[in-house]
Amino acid sequence: MSSEAIRPTTLEGIKRLAKSLKVERGVQHVQALDAASQAAGFQNFRHAGNTLRTGPAPEQEIHRYRVFLTAYWEQRESGASGRETLTIWLSLPWTNLITPLQLKNHRALAGFRNDGPDHLVHERQQNSQSHARNYVCAAARVFYFMDATKLQPSQGYSRVFPGGNSINVIPGHDHDSVWYDRKTRRYLFADEPYEGAAEGRKPEREAWAKQHGFVIVRPEWAGMYAPDIGSRLYLVADKTKGIPLSPVAAALNMLPAPINESTWNGESAPMKPFFVSPGTAAKDAAVKDKPKTPYKLNGQRNSVEYVQTFVGPQRRPVGRMPIETHAEVGRLLKSVLVVAYNRKGVYKRINSIRCELDEWAMREYSNDELSLEQLNKLYYQESGTMFSRSITESERKRHAESLAQVKKILGKHYPDCSPLRMLLKKVDAAVGSLTSWT
Question: What topology is assigned to 300-435 in CATH?
Fold first, then answer.
């Protein structure tokens, strides 16, 4: 029997499995202990030790539901890119802890979207590996908080302030969030200031709690916001109307130390092929004739969002086309533009296409790679007459072939996605107008 199929239920069983994995995989003992702990349903060996040393956990509390958290990144200056995926284990499916719509109720989860029964993906492509890891780790800390407490993030801030008025908020609060207990319909306030700032205002905070009949508890578990750089979690609730804090703190103290970038133990991989989780793959396989697109950014395959000045959020294909290829496409488009000014069905569409490709090129390359002067020459600064009232059949054919070449080049260098398809439709429309122009 392969060690991969063994699922230990005790600390000793984990240690025995680790010895086997150490030999089979040729890894260090510490790595083998973490791998064996993950097979048992824990995040790592420390998590297993903290949980199992307190006594056997009830069967329903064993962490046996796996969730993948993913963020993609691309560094504009160097062109380097990749994927960061962290695996966490929970006692319940993640959708039992929070609904996809409720993800927006917490800052660390708001950027993630449901990509499958065991997978959440950050919608925005990050500009560095470090940023991607930080987003994923922050989401993981919130999921561990939810799994331990079974509380849900809420936007009901008025429910946690004395008198329902935000002017009465606890002094020195920072990086705060509101949490709701579905069973009791009660709330608590999670305050996560930097520890030095909070301790400096400790008398003031204690006086506030006494005045309003609130309780403040600081768990041993450091918290969700930025525990690696000094933020600390304080639980705050109304003494009579709020969520009892002692059980919540006790549950949090059973958790391992909050994961962060410096303790990263996730998977770092190339951006492509996009990651498909086991649960997503199994779900897709069960749906006949409806294959799922492996990965989507903001609901659109192979594309990334950017913000265009005076326009707002837009999308472009993931990756970039070589500068010399941009120049070739620009030359082909400009050759049509110089003769098509009076054929608005052609001119307006080609002008729109070059505007968009110019924007993509600017987003794809840094100023060091592509100077402003070079950028301007790619799709603009055409020369030649723009006032032709008609063109010959041979000219129509030649320019239609130029636009066909544009389609071919774009399809070769960009992945299939909604922004590209919309651009290619404009090319087709321009060709249609061109071929009917006499």
Answer: Ferritin (1.20.1260)
